[in-house]
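Long-time lurker, first post.

We've been arguing in lab meeting about whether magnesium ion would sit comfortably in this protein at all. Half the group thinks yes, half thinks no, and nobody has a model to point at. So I'm putting the question to the forum: if I give you the sequence and the SMILES, can you give me back a predicted structure of the complex? Inputs are below. Any interpretation is welcome too.
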Amino acid sequence: MSRTPLDTVEHAAATPDVELPWAELGLKKDEYERIVEILGRRPTGAELAMYSVMWSEHCSYKSSKVHLRQFGEKAPENDVLLVGMGENAGVVDVGQGYAVTFKVESHNHPSYVEPYQGAATGVGGIVRDIIAMGARPVAVVDPLRFGAADHPDTKRVLPGVVAGIGGYGNCLGLPNIGGEVVFDACYQGNPLVNAGCIGVMRHEDIHLAKASGAGNKVILYGARTGGDGIGGASILASETFDAESDSASGTGKPRKRPAVQVGDPFQEKLLIECTLEAFAEKLVVGIQDLGAAGLSCATSELASNGSGGMRVILDDVPLRDSTLSPEEILMSESQERMCAIVEPDKVDRFLEICEKWDVIATVIGEVTDGDRLEIYWHGEKIVDVDPRTVAHEGPVYERPYARPEWQDALQADDAGKLPRPRTSEELREQVLKLVASPNQASKKWITQQYDHFVQGNTVLAMPEDAGMIRIDEETGLGVAIATDGNGRYTKLDPYTGAQLALAEAYRNVAATGAKPLAVSDCLNFGSPEDPAVMWQFAEAVRGLADGCRQLGTPVTGGNVSLYNQTGEVAIHPTPVVAVLGVIDDVSRRTPVAFQEEGQLLYLLGDTREEFGGSAWSQVIHDHLGGLPPKVDLERERLLAEILIAASRDGMIDSAHDLSDGGLIQAVVESALLGGKGARLIVPDGLDAFTFLFSESAGRAIVAVPRSEEVRFTDMCRARDLPATRIGVVDGDAVEVQGEFVLSLEELREAHENTIPSLLA
Amino acid sequence: MARVVVDVMLKPEILDPQGQAVQRALPRLGFEGISDVRQGKRFELEVDGPVDDAALARIHDLAESFLANTVIEDFTVRVESDDAVAEAVK
Amino acid sequence: MARVVVDVMLKPEILDPQGQAVQRALPRLGFEGISDVRQGKRFELEVDGPVDDAALARIHDLAESFLANTVIEDFTVRVESDDAVAEAVK
Amino acid sequence: MTARIGVVTFPGSLDDRDSRRAIRLAGAEPVALWHKDKDLKQVDAVVLPGGFSYGDYLRAGAISRFSPVMETIIEQARAGMPVLGICNGFQILTEAHLLPGAMLGNDHLHFICRDQKLRVENAETAWTGDYTAGQEIHIPLKNMDGRYVADEYTLDMLEAEGRVVFRYLDFNPNGSLRDIAGITNEAGNVVGLMPHPEHAVEPLIGTGRTDGLPFFTSILKKLVTA
Ligand SMILES: Nc1ncnc2c1ncn2[C@@H]1O[C@H](COP(=O)(O)OP(=O)(O)O)[C@@H](O)[C@H]1O
Ligand SMILES: [Mg+2]
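Top reply:
Settle the argument with this. Predicted structure of the protein with magnesium ion, as tokens:
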């Protein structure tokens, strides 16, 4: 397809009055004017394509940047961060010369449009981020949010998303070791599909997205570039869906049907192997994956981070569709591509490795000693920009924010006033209802579609509190990861809600015996143009940054997904927090399941009357109001230290953190997993209802062998952590003395049948 | 009873990893001269009663809303007569 | 250049859970009167040069040895002419 | 002396490393083999590991079966060399007609990953000597296309000749006919199964059981005493 005339740099300079479709590309008028100002002339079509995708909300973080800075400014003193925020993913020192990189990203909108491919390519994208750091990916996690469990559209979206995550991750050979599945009507038109990946490398293997060394070659390798997903992630992720798209019947498809990408996990598996082989031979100077904004992003970021400039010959990009225009090539979001900077004398070897793995690799340009990014097409220059202005100096907005006027009323609507069960029989019924409710029910139907075993290093996988992977066979060094978020808590109080998410993930990691080290996050919110949403965002970020500082766990990176709303209605503010931990010897890990009858159950931490945003208030009363549980991060830290020490010294045989659903939910899970029941006694000073359903933070239950009881309780006493004996592992029922008995069989049926009967 | 066939193929601009895998294997099997392979799905529906325009219209709706995801796929619906010479309907 | 279509379907005696899943979903979607659904694969091969008997015979071999597993699947090969009225070859 | 056991890496193989680890833990010497090489590096036996070779895009195992390394393996297997196909390896063996029948998508249409109970039906093959017939074991299972099918005649023959090596117990995870989880050829040197013994060789890892280790000790014993 010949386009006449080609919009070259020269042509642009000579035709200042030509109007380009900046609005269609999602730019605002003042943004366009800034581009003109930066260039000193109007941009060419290709330049406009690059600026428009790179300055989109998705790529530039223009609304969130001013807030995210706190993660750096408030970062705790630490000696674990090897690479901080701003790179493809942060890198953490886990000892013995190993470094771990991890990150969570969203693929929300694409997964609503095409659940299978949207979710699959979400996994593909995050895995490439991890490879780009120089690491071998070793596990994935998938925090998910869907609309109401019984809504017909959930039956379209959820199975597709789960099949997509499994289809891609399983085919790559990455064990899936954790995640979340949450149902809430607020996610009906905006499911949240977040995907996280962990990678492992030696310290010396860390790679950065940096193009340095004039004369070094720019090699594009992986899939051919096609027309799929042009502007996909970028434009798509930046716009709100139409209200009508969520038709009442639920079977309707979104009205908006942009091109989505199709993933090729087999190609990605080859990409992983050939990239790691090239790393091993030290052939790579700098590397960047191609994700949102494709080549526009990879070339401008590599050049911007490096010391020199870059020249790219766009004609050399291998195409799947020969009719693509240069603008489209620059914007294409075809999956499974990477871009490497390689010294000239190593290019042949690099290409050889690619060929070994049947991966197409092409030199498309080189690093120059100037400071411009220049792109040529048919011998003519169509892009001539300062790469920093594209990649790093995009617009920054201080969006107005304001505490919504309904916040007070919401908080005043105290869940403590809801009618409580009056009889033991009612209490028993509510327990059954809780453990069978979609959010509290077993997610096995979903998680068994994921490979947990591949790579042969999985120590713990779901439904454990955290996933755990061995990274050194000799020493038993391992890492653990947990992801958590609670949109209900965060809606009630965004600052506290974000800290509760952090506290829960931190606690989950500690419950397995691993020491929490660092944090990544995925911040899912509504439209930043709504001051109420912006306030939720600002508060959540402030809460998370303050929390990380207090816990001593730096934020290593993350992802922001905005515009998750249908019409005027935003999702609950949903910061998802991932905490990474390390354990010196995985043989000391603590599982969730009860191990042996006769072991003593201890409740660690304080239980208060806290029901705001609780599972109980949702399941029994369909209520959301009041305040979320209080956060005491010093207490969380102490609890974690006790859990870790107890695991290291063999004082406990199982542990389970308490979170949504409260104590009874945790006991039921440990009992069902271990196939062993428990006899519980309501401790003095608590009523049975509060004991079972309160969601006070900073708590866990542990099973202590009798021989360890004195040692364990002494330790808790010495450290001032409340430890209350609440019962014993015993029999094949969960009994609350003086209240009720529920057989494991009855509990299992309630807990395990819900999801299959809704979805299968 | 009649058979209606719905063919569902990825849109031409969408990557077809399955077709590509087949195509890349061909030379190894000693096959030359095939420049492109695309792999899609074929549904055979056995319809009770006559396949009139109304029935076809309904099957068309079915294909559009359920058998294919028109974000990434195209489809055709046709009646397959006994001599297997198909008649294009869409 | 011509297009040859290879349709591959599970043999009738082999359980086809995909087809069944579609069929089971039909009533929910408000569809009646479809007594059976089978799901198979459709390959579209773009052949360089003329599709004469020799070429078809080779594609037939390809289908038999590669595109289909004849332990479980049947296949048909046909040339698709431009007006999309297919001609049965096997 | 020890035995050299090759593990083939196809593009898209996933459990090749794990299979080599299992071989090493059993005391044999793992040898990496590459799909493009016809050369088997003088190994005494071969494992075709699990994974999604070529993405399993056409049919599981259909493309790998035509790789150069398979030419040699097919020839050698017919001559008696022990070959174990795990999951994708099993699928490749059926596509290569070294084992009868075929593998299809799970009847429930989902990938399934679980700790699977099996009964050892045949402890005489090259790979099962360290089990006893009738023994019940747990081995992780994880696959999309695990449904074993063959015609009635073949199934009857397999049973009559004692060539069903493993059966699923308590729960058939994929709709395999007659609960078949693994089979062998007439000579007993070629064995294929869907579950993954290489993922059950270390305490603490995976399901924490070591019920899969005897596969690798069996073959080692057989080769060393041969
Ligand atoms: N989508 C998912 N993918 C993988 N694992 C999941 C998923 N959803 C839930 N899980 C796992 O199931 C278990 C229970 O989940 P959840 O109740 O959310 O845990 P917690 O409340 O401790 O955070 C955890 O091990 C979690 O990692
Ligand atoms: Mg937990």
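For your lab meeting: Residues A 142, 144, 176, 178-181, 443, 446-447, 462-465, 484, 508, 657, 659 surround adenosine-5'-diphosphate (ligand 1) (CB under 6 Å). Residues 53-67 of chain C form the longest helix (15 residues). Whichever side wins, do check it experimentally.
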